[in-house]
Amino acid sequence: MSQLSTISWDVFVDAGYIAHVDVIIDIDGDGVRDDALVFEYDKVQTPSDQLIVDMNFQRDAWVNTFDDKGIVNDDAIAWLSSGLSGGLNSPGFINGLLSLWKSGIATDIDGSTVVIDGSTVILGFEIEIDSWIIQSDDTKNPISTIRNIQINGMPVEVSLQPLDSLEFNVETEFAIDIVPNIYTITTTVDLR
Q: pTM of the prediction?
């Protein structure tokens, strides 16, 4: 994880909640997803824990990553997916700046203390538009909703090359049984 410096993308938001990224991590080194660091608009910079109507990202426009709250970088706050949900100061809500995660944050997972730090392996990235939070009309045209994905300033593109020759693989998942206003569209970038 120590090599991760930035993540950014462009997203078109018609209405609803802006896209976020889950950084998929392997804590115990077995090559299997153990957890995720979640970077989302409401938590990535202060103010946090706002109502969606009070959030200042633009609508009906292409914006870069989190718009007025910037991109994912060392000063961005991520929360641990396996921790309790809630506000930044809620008990059991585990969060910290990316720079602090890379320096090492000890946490209790399933009764064991684990340290997530710069040596933690990143397995992939999932850029998601969640419509279960609020109806997100930015999913009308999901193929073009997110573009210009960059990791550490390097563009991530869809390629027709065999998967084993790619440094990154971009895969978009569309739910088969989409229930109106209750679904997530996930774009996964797998490291090779």
A: 0.77
The number of angstroms, rounded, from the C-alpha of 60 to the middle of its chain's C-alpha atoms is 22
Break the chain into its structural domains and give their ranges: 7-191
Q: What angle do CA 92, 191, 16 make, to 5 degrees?
A: 55
CB crowding 102-122: b at 16 or more within 10 Å, else e = beebebebeeeebebbeebeb
What is the per-residue pLDDT across 69-124, written as a single tens digit (0 to 9) for each? Answer: 999 999 999 999 988 777 888 888 888 999 999 999 877 666 677 789 999 999 98
Contact 117, 26 (CB under 8 A): no
Secondary structure class of 142 (helix, strand, coil): helix
Element (H, E) at 129: strand 121-130
Tell me the C-alpha distance between 95 and 12, whole Å: 27
Distances (CA, A) of 62 to 6, 12, 71, 101, 145: 19, 4, 14, 30, 9
The CA-atom distances, in angstroms, between 46 and each of 23, 36, 40, 76 are 20, 21, 12, 10
Provide the β-strand partners of residue 169. 190
CA 14 – CA 61 distance, rounded (Å) = 7
